[in-house]
Amino acid sequence: MKTKQRQRQVKPAEVRLDELVSAAQVLFLEKGMKATTVDDIVERAGVAKGTFYHYFNTKTDLLPALRERFARRFLERVSEAVEACAEDDWRGRLSAWCQRSLSICVEDFRLHDLVYADHYHDRSDPDLNQVLDQVEAILRAGGEAGAWPQADWRRLAVIAFWSMHGLADDLIARGGDSEEVGRFLSQRLLAMLGGTGT
């Protein structure tokens, strides 16, 4: 009687890589990076140890992949909230950016702190620049459409980002309603843009 041989499932490289990154993310948050081993990661991902070493030399090499994924998902989630507003609703789009950015920072602060532990003061951080580009684009487009006076969009984007980040840190530390704080931030920014945020 012939025995049925188990066929090895061949997955695309990007799927294997995503499985490793996802496994590491869960374990790093559950156990901490120091306590997590490569064996833990491959077991959770359901891959051979050799697969891990095909992509990474050490577990700390996973951090850039985790960081890239965090930033990409952050931008996508914020963009979805902004794009849910009417194209010409510039106040709504800026408010959506403020509220969704803030809520993500509060919801995912443990992952954020994990992946950016060594990057907080990196002024050339491409992830930070992408977020600044995102809010700058909203400010610029609103200004060009006449929703508020022309201004120095990049500096306003910097104010928007760091205000959002500081308010998120305060919410995490002291608690509160992220939706209410998001409204507060958007009202203050709108007031700066043209005295219409009250």
Distance between the termini: 81 Å
Stated plainly, the CATH topology of the largest domain is called Tetracycline Repressor, domain 2
Mean pLDDT: 89
**Which H/E pattern describes the elements?**
HHHHHHHHH
Beta strand count: 0
Q: Which CATH first-tier class of the largest domain would you pick?
A: Mainly Alpha
Radius of gyration computed on alpha carbons: 21 Å
CATH superfamily of the largest domain: Tetracycline Repressor, domain 2
Strand content: under 5%
Helix count from the secondary structure assignment: 9
Number of domains: 2
Uncertain parts? none
Structural class: mainly alpha
Percent helix range: over 70%
Characterize the overall form.
elongated
User: Do you know the CATH architecture of the largest domain?
Assistant: Orthogonal Bundle
Largest sheet: none
Explain the overall architecture:
It is a single chain. This protein is mainly α and 198 residues long. It folds into two domains: 13-57, Arc Repressor Mutant, subunit A; 63-194, Orthogonal Bundle (Tetracycline Repressor, domain 2), CATH 1.10.357.10. Helices cover 70% and strands 0% of the residues. It has nine helices and no strands. It has helices spanning 13-31, 38-45, 49-55, 62-83, 90-107, 109-115, 126-144, 153-174, 178-194. Helix 1 (13-31) packs across helix 2, helix 5 (90-107) packs antiparallel against helix 7 (126-144) and helix 8 (153-174) runs antiparallel to helix 9. The longest helix has 22 residues, at 62-83. The radius of gyration is 21 Å and the shape is elongated. The N and C termini lie far apart (81 Å). The mean pLDDT is 89. This is TetR/AcrR family transcriptional regulator. Keywords: Coiled coil, DNA-binding.
